[in-house]
């Protein structure tokens, strides 16, 4: 586990130019590219309660303010509350056989808080009916909400009216005679009633600022503060409507709902991660983590880091796939990446120019057609993909170079049974003994020489990098067209932090 | 370490696999699991009745750092109905009744624990202080709150253990008669 959470010594360059450790990366099988958390588009799949595992439709969740109606959390430590039974005498004291009267109260197994602490009466049913606290400002909030809804409506109406005016000058016959409906009403002597939608929305009473503030009670200066009585910031913010200051006003809060999110590649709009719908399941329908597709690199041993002499490092490659792969170590070649990024930028600029020129052309080509769509809508491409991430230059600088080995090496496929099988450790792979120093099932250790650049001072962290070219077997195309699995060379830039000189 | 002087009252259940060092008195009804550790380094430890000391729990009576010799160190008195859960380390100088030390907690030697306290899982309490009655400490920030009641005693669990443990472990024989 420390490998996953520990310091990132080995980082992979995502297609967008950011450096991430392997467990933080995704691999889009359709684009055959690495994608980091910024190159995927997260979407809310389903909303559920983590305690009662109930799926809640998004509209319902919105009404309930994204809180579960049934589950409560401890106001003291924000953990789930559980219901406890307390027996309170018998139902009928005269009858000796009558069952014990059961009452229920809420209790937190974590911090020991229970609903009796704050004087919430015990309930007779286990599912609750726990008293909700009335928000003192609810009337005011409702008033504000209503008036803003009205403003929204009237603005909508205004817009529609503006649109209508374009159709023709006269809306009705009375307009043609020069007498509007309201003018007619005035002439006949009926009081003028403006149209319901045209009525000016009633603005809520604005709150007034006051300069008179209650004096700070003396007790804050004279009495010693008892921290056990005062709530913490977290406890206060859990109940934004009341924000209790003392612990005796803490009331159980409803549990926040959780979401399941799916991730979509921003380039091809296909899913790279999609969880199963059932809230009880922790499995994925689609799960394209780079960890399952890209050979993993680990630092095994780093020799003495000294300037002027090559340092020997040993790194281990692990093949996570079911297909054999060949790995070639290539130059890091940051210049090539920079060129690629610049090309992309140029392409983007030219695309933008095209869009702009289209926008300019439109008004001239379509001379004020009545009822036509606004020209800005037409100029947009048919379907704008999600916000795409522009690749950027890799910021990490390297202060040492790896001596690129001349030979390549083979990584056998992963075999889960091999771990329990000690017998067949013989493999008919001819290795360059200068490069490969150890080999077992799908793992290979290789030796590389690193030269630290001139001019680096002692105590500085040494970074080196190389490009790993591996054969990636894409089985998607094979499944579709019953063809042989497609093999392609995939290149990843890998950066190693070798520690201090 | 000087010779062990362990007094076990009848009714107590002390497993052979537990590690007891120094002058220790175990009250009746107390259960000490195998691989629990009780070390009376600075002075005697007296464990009250009906305490539960689980696996890997460590109760150590240490000499304070600023003191060189073992003089004037009082007996470590542990009250009744205390629960020391798995892998807790307790070096408190005084422990009252009905306390719960949850797994992997640490209580330093300058702490005095009164009655009905709960030290939450993983909480480290090292500052010199006296924990008031019915205090419970929990969470990564060792948040303190005061309860109304002492934690519920684990009677059912103790009864089961009293039946089950002798079936699978060697038991140290009680060498003292029932306390009067």
From TrEMBL, chain A:
It comes from the Eukaryota. The keyword Phosphoprotein applies. One of its GO terms (cellular component) is myofibril. Keywords: Acetylation, Coiled coil, Cytoplasm, Cytoskeleton, Isopeptide bond, Phosphoprotein, Ubl conjugation. It is found in: Cytoplasm, Cell cortex; Cytoplasm, Cytoskeleton, Microtubule organizing center, Centrosome; Cytoplasm, Cytoskeleton, Stress fiber; Cytoplasm, Myofibril. Belongs to the dynactin subunit 4 family. Pfam families: Dynactin_p62 (PF05502). This is Dynactin subunit 4. Subunit of dynactin, a multiprotein complex part of a tripartite complex with dynein and a adapter, such as BICDL1, BICD2 or HOOK3. The dynactin complex is built around ACTR1A/ACTB filament and consists of an actin-related filament composed of a shoulder domain, a pointed end and a barbed end. Its length is defined by its flexible shoulder domain. The soulder is composed of 2 DCTN1 subunits, 4 DCTN2 and 2 DCTN3. The 4 DCNT2 (via N-terminus) bind the ACTR1A filament and act as molecular rulers to determine the length. The pointed end is important for binding dynein-dynactin cargo adapters. Its main location: cytoplasm. It comes from Hypothenemus hampei.
UniProtKB/TrEMBL annotation, chain B:
SUPFAM superfamilies: Trimeric LpxA-like enzymes. It is found in: Cytoplasm, Cytoskeleton. One of its GO terms (cellular component) is cytoskeleton. It comes from the Eukaryota. Keywords: Cytoplasm, Cytoskeleton. Part of the dynactin complex that activates the molecular motor dynein for ultra-processive transport along microtubules. Belongs to the dynactin subunits 5/6 family. Dynactin subunit 6 subfamily. This is Dynactin subunit 6.
């Amino acid at each position: 586990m420390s490998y996953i959470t520990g310091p990132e010594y080995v980082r992979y360059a995502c297609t967008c130019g950011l450096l991430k450790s392997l467990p933080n990366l995704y691999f889009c099988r359709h684009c055959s590219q690495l994608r980091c958390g910024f190159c995927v588009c997260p979407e809310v799949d389903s909303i559920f309660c983590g305690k009662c595992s109930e799926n809640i439709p998004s509209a319902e969740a919105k009404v309930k303010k994204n809180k579960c109606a049934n589950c409560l959390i401890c106001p003291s430590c924000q953990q789930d509350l559980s219901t406890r039974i307390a027996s309170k005498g018998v139902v009928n004291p005269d009858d000796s056989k009558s069952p014990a009267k059961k009452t229920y109260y809420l209790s937190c197994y974590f911090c020991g808080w229970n609903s009796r602490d704050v004087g919430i009466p015990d309930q007779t049913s286990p599912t609750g009916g726990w008293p909700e606290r009335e928000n003192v400002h609810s009337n005011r909030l409702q008033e504000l909400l209503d008036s803003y809804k009205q403003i929204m409506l009237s603005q909508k109406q205004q817009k529609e009216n503006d649109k209508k005016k374009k159709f023709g000058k006269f809306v009705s016959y009375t307009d043609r005679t020069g007498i509007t409906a309201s003018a007619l009403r005035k002439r006949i002597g009926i009081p003028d009633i403006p149209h319901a939608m045209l009525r000016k929305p009633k603005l809520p009473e604005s709150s007034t600022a006051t300069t008179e503030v209650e004096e700070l009670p003396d007790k804050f200066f004279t009495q010693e503060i008892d921290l056990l009585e005062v709530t913490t910031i977290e406890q206060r913010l859990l109940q934004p409507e009341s924000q209790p200051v003392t612990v005796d006003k803490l009331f159980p809060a409803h549990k926040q709902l959780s979401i399941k999110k799916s991730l979509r590649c921003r380039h091809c709009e296909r899913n790279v991660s999609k969880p199963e719908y059932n809230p009880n399941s922790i499995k994925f329908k689609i799960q394209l983590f780079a960890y399952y597709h890209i050979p993993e690199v680990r630092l095994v041993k780093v020799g003495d880091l000294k300037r002027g002499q090559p340092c020997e490092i040993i790194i281990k490659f692990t093949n996570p796939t079911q297909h054999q792969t060949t790995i070639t170590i290539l130059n890091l070649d940051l210049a090539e990446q920079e060129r690629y990024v610049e090309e992309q930028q140029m392409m983007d600029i030219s695309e933008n120019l095209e869009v702009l020129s289209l926008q300019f052309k439109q008004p001239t080509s379509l001379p004020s057609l009545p009822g036509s769509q606004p020209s800005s809508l037409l100029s947009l491409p048919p379907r704008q993909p999600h916000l795409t991430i522009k690749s950027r230059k890799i910021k990490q600088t390297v202060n040492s170079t790896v001596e690129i080995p001349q030979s390549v090496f083979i990584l056998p496929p992963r075999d889960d049974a091999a771990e329990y099988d000690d017998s067949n450790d013989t493999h008919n792979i001819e290795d360059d003994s200068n490069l490969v120093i150890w080999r077992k099932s799908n793992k290979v250790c290789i030796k590389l020489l690193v030269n630290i650049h001139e001019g680096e001072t002692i105590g500085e962290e040494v970074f080196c990098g190389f490009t790993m070219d591996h054969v990636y077997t894409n089985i998607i195309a094979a499944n579709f067209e019953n063809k042989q699995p497609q093999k392609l060379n995939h290149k990843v830039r890998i950066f190693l932090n070798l520690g201090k000189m | 370490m000087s010779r062990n002087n362990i007094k076990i009252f009848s009714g107590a259940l002390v497993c052979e696999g537990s590690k007891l060092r120094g002058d220790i008195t175990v009250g009746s009804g107390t259960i000490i699991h195998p691989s629990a550790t009780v070390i009376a380094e600075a002075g005697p430890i007296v464990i009250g009745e009906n305490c539960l000391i689980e696996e890997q729990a460590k109760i150590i009576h240490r000499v304070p750092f600023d003191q060189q010799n073992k003089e004037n160190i009082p007996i470590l008195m542990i009250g009744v109905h205390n629960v020391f859960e798995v892998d807790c380390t307790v070096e408190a100088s005084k422990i009252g009744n009905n306390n719960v030390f949850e797994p992997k907690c640490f209580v330093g030697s300058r702490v005095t624990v009164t009655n009905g306290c709960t030290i939450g899982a993983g909480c480290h309490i090292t500052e010199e202080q006296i924990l008031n009655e019915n205090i419970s400490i929990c969470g990564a920030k060792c948040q303190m709150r005061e309860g109304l009641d002492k934690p519920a005693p684990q009677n059912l669990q103790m009864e089961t253990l009293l039946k089950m443990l002798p079936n699978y472990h060697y038991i140290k024989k009680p060498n003292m008669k029932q306390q009067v």
